[in-house]
Design brief:
Blueprint (H helix, E strand, L loop, with lengths): L6 E2 L5 E2 L8 H17 L39 H4 L1 H4 L3 E3 L2 E3 L14 E4 L9 E4 L4 E5 L4 E6 L2 E2 L7 E10 L7 H6 L21 E7 L2 E10 L8 E3 L3 E4 H13 L4 E5 L1
């Protein structure tokens, strides 16, 4: 039997015969991996693309995913139905009506639908409207919430309190209150109600807020006037982008119980 001895590979590396600490197979495998890494240009430190703020025209990826800051509450989940602006705000056909695409680049990032850490402390399945933020939260399990931008009532028209969503409607009829008709006589033509449709002020969906079994007269509803989201523009109701109110409606309808709502 010949004595164990050091041998050299064609690469110049020295290996030992079996029985020593490092076997020939281990060294060869290691050299192979190093060769592949060298060929691929890899290094021990993985270089990632910079996430520094971009110019406004370059902030969106081709897929429409917004990488801009979402405010103080960071998004924590990835779901193309919630984080892909192009998917969320595309044109859609609904019950015979066509809802136009929203030019989401013109909507401030903090008012676009997104998943955030729940800041409300309310039970899952609760709607929370924070008037000063112009945000509506749908509280989910696991400490998350879906956050939507909303428009709220003008000064003196707001409502706040704890109540529940008694029922919901698709493409609801809008009947202006007598007080509104008195302020805007041109609305008298809708005394018996304006049928649902793309121009209806209640938009694609409406959620009716009841407190202690009584209609408050306030709604969480869609609006064709997407540019009013984030402002005080309504007569007291909470308005949403039509695509967003449909998303919320689907969640409310799936709830096994009446949905509580907190407006503060």
């Amino acid at each position: 039997m010949r004595k164990p001895q050091d041998q050299k590979l064609s690469s110049g590396a020295t290996i030992s015969e079996p029985g020593y600490v490092v076997s020939r197979r281990t060294v060869l495998s290691g050299l192979g991996v190093m060769t592949l890494l060298g060929a691929s240009g890899c290094s021990r430190v993985l270089e990632l693309p910079s996430l520094e703020p971009l110019e406004p025209s370059a902030r969106l990826s081709p897929a429409g995913v917004d990488h801009m800051s979402t405010g103080a509450i960071p998004p924590i989940s990835v779901d193309s139905n919630i984080t892909d602006n192009g998917t969320m705000y595309a044109s859609m056909s609904d019950n015979g009506f066509v809802i136009p695409a929203i030019p989401y680049q013109k909507v401030k990032p903090e008012f676009r639908r997104q998943i955030v850490i729940d800041p409300t402390g309310e039970a899952p399945g609760t709607i929370v409207v924070r008037l000063n933020e112009r945000h509506l939260y749908w509280v989910q399990e696991g400490g998350e919430a879906i956050r939507y931008g909303v428009g709220i009532g003008k000064a003196g028209f707001e409502w706040s309190g704890r109540a529940e969503i008694q029922y919901t409607k698709q493409w609801p009829t809008w009947t202006p209150p007598k007080e509104m008709i008195a302020r805007k006589p041109e609305l008298v033509k809708w005394t018996d109600g304006q049928p649902g449709g793309p121009d209806n002020p209640l938009g694609a969906r409406a959620h009716y807020i009841y407190k202690d079994g009584h209609d408050t007269g306030y709604r969480v509803h869609g609006s064709p006037e997407w540019w009013t989201i984030g402002t005080q523009a309504s007569s007291g109701c909470v308005r949403m982008i039509n695509q967003d109110v449909i998303d919320l409606y689907n969640r409310v309808k799936a709830s096994p119980t009446k949905v509580p709502i907190v407006v503060a």
